[in-house]
Amino acid sequence: MRKGHLFAAGMSLCLGLSVEAAERYARLAHTYSIVARDPETGEIGGAVQSHWFSVGSAVLWAEAGVGAVATQSFTEPSYGPLGLALMRTGRSAQQALAGLLAADPDAAVRQVAMIAAAGKAAAHTGARCIAEAGQHVGENYSAQANLMLKPTVWDAMARAFESSSGDLAERLMAALEAAEREGGDIRGRQSAALLVVSGAPSGQPWADRRFDLRVEDHPEPLVELRRLLGVARAYQHMNEGDEAATEGDMERASRAYGAAAALVPDNPEMVYWNAVALASSDRLEEALPLFRKAFAADPNWAILTPRLPAADLLPDDPALLQQILAEAQR
Hints:
Blueprint: H1 3-15, H2 19-24, E1 28-29, E2 31-37, E3 44-50, H3 56-59, E4 60-63, E5 67-74, H4 79-88, H5 93-102, E6 110-116, E7 121-125, E8 134-138, E9 141-145, H6 153-163, H7 168-181, E10 191-197, H8 205-208, E11 209-215, H9 221-246, H10 250-263, H11 268-279, H12 284-297, H13 300-304, H14 318-326
Antiparallel strand pairs: 1-5, 2-3, 2-9, 3-10, 4-5, 5-6, 6-7, 8-9, 10-11
């Protein structure tokens, strides 16, 4: 008997599933998660952590202007796209969840939460989810967990979400971190994810994703997720800087690149493009120390620099270029 089939057979005996159903749902995502909406911006999304590889790829689903879903425990990933499809037609989170549970012969081993774009959330913790398991549905959010060390994890998440400030991504992170402080998953930790989409659809789903971050396998996934959130914010500033530079607004580009570099000061690319924007805005004295720092981190930035005037990213000024490249020799 192959290993996966043996595992499924054990699940079927323990949980009353057929072997076929156990094989179908053998992907575990015992975990803690939260789905939520920001009533001020309309942003919607979720966050999750588990002692399981790549938890975000199966658990979290969200669509701008529609809602978000977390499907976990003995995971049925189809709850994600089907839940969103039902909410897209105007069904509430409660109606969408109830309909999917009614059609699921293994609803007792599911833990699922949904929130609609209007802010109403609904959750289900099946009777055969492994203890400690439970949920806390509040205004504009639902926190849920199973296979926890303590039965207080989901309430700790709720308190953290309600009391935290900042944008939705920050409040979702606060909820995850509170769960970990409360004891978290009884097995430990391995992966985490955070997904936030904009409040209104733009018609370009890729542009609606404000944050889509995953830590697939890490000894401290929440620490790494927190770091990635900071890097993602920096690159949002970088994207703004690139857009401004393309439009010829080098002053705005410099402000955006500077904000990115302040968030991730050890990233030479952010330092470099800030320097380019400053030099293009007649602020060479501010730019030169940044060029020096970037060139010291990687000499290839100095090789790249003479190519920029042809792309209209630096003035076509040989004297200016000579001053900049002199920083590579310092």
